[in-house]
Description:
It is a single chain. The protein is an all-alpha fold. It has 22 helices and no strands. It has helices at 8-28, 33-49, 55-88, 91-99, 108-123, 126-143, 150-167, 172-180, 185-214, 222-235, 244-254, 259-276, 282-291, 300-306, 315-333, 336-345, 351-369, 372-389, 394-408, 416-425, 429-432, 437-452. α1 (8-28) packs across α16 (336-345). The chain starts with 7 loop residues before the first helix and ends in a 15-residue tail after the last helix. 53% of the residues are buried.
Amino acid sequence: MEKKKPTLKLALIGTLGVLVILLSCVLLFKVDVIIALTIGIIYAGIVGRFNGVTLNDLVEGMQEGVAKALIGLLFFPLVGAVIGSWLIGGTIPALVYYGLDILNPRFFLISSFIICSALSLLIGTSWGTVGTAGLAIAGVAISSDLSIPFGIVAGSIIAGAWFGDKMSPISDSTVLSATAVETDVYNHIRGMAYTTIPSFIISTIIFGIINFFYAGDATLNYDVIAPIKETLAEHFNLSPLVFIPPIVLIILCVLRTHAFISLLGAIAAGSFCSMAVQGNTVMDTMAAVMNGLQVETPIAEVNTLLNRGGMNSMMSSMFLCMVAVCMGGVLTKTQFLHVIIENLAKYMRSTFSLVFTTMVSCLLSNMMFADNYLTMILNGNLYRDMYDERGLDRSMLSRTIEEMATMSVPMIPWTAAAAFLTGTLGISVAEYAPYCVLNFVSPVVGLISAATGIGVLYVKGAKKAKA
């Protein structure tokens, strides 16, 4: 059968069929998302046969998808290695130890937001931030006469944690978003800065205003903080030298060193601190880099902080993303996405309409897949050519995907992120979601940027399109 461009009807049957399969498998039948993706790939291949797509074509599409995403996929084990080396080197424990001293009842929400933002930016994980510093802050808030509803405190923790998850060069979502649209990680981060920095400032001001109305003469119960700090001090040498790894990472990022080199430098610095500052052996250090740190303490929050990281901890996420990339390659090879793009383009005559449609698509994808990884891969494939045709820099697409795919996932009750947050903080999504200020502000600022043309980025030499 000769291969030709599919009709819109066949393209919709193929694409929407895959969406229905993923939605049914993940939400209704509780099938593992990797199995659901595999079934979706098989379905897309069967529908593609009606258009002359062969098995060799499908294999070639998957190979091309993985080849394009290979560099991004390799970041996952490196990120795990960074976390493992920073844990055994004492960097992450020190960040939590000294960060808890910043808490002040008069500026509690601002402190909570900034502490979680800084920690998440450095360690590259929102979940890890919520499960460590976030949990400690929550314990302080609950045990103290703070007068601030816990839902607001939780919102400040989550907003801060997701700021770092969005902006950190070692965050899996940052790396995956850049990979999905085939752009450099640092180019992606620079593109996000145009909207994320204003969003961060606005969010800080809003949290300050809320704090002003609620705090009153509140005091803090430092009995909650003291055991956590004492336990960290017992297990680690919290010398200023343990801050060498983040300093090295920041310097390498500022120098625009390749992300691979930056991560390797961060791992090397963390390993140095492990041996030179903490007195660990080379074997212990390498074990933490590979498998994470394994420490048992009497404090549950400290155990949550310490027992994680390592290359192996990222293998499942890496494999999930690889299968998702294969799915994107198959949908591209069958040309289903290409046909849908052509028809969508008729209704997108401005940059604003393109950005708005991308955001809506990402939100719906998150709601259907209950996962932002697949959302990033599929929407990166779906809109990449459309942004190119308008002369927009690829970082415009990657930042738009992050502003909705990354920022909306904790506010959708049936996602894994929301389940983690409710279980960790002991609060419902309905209670914290209205106060995740940054998660709302970020996409709004992105839309304002697209509407006004301020912060819209174009390929060098490209003609500027209508905002």
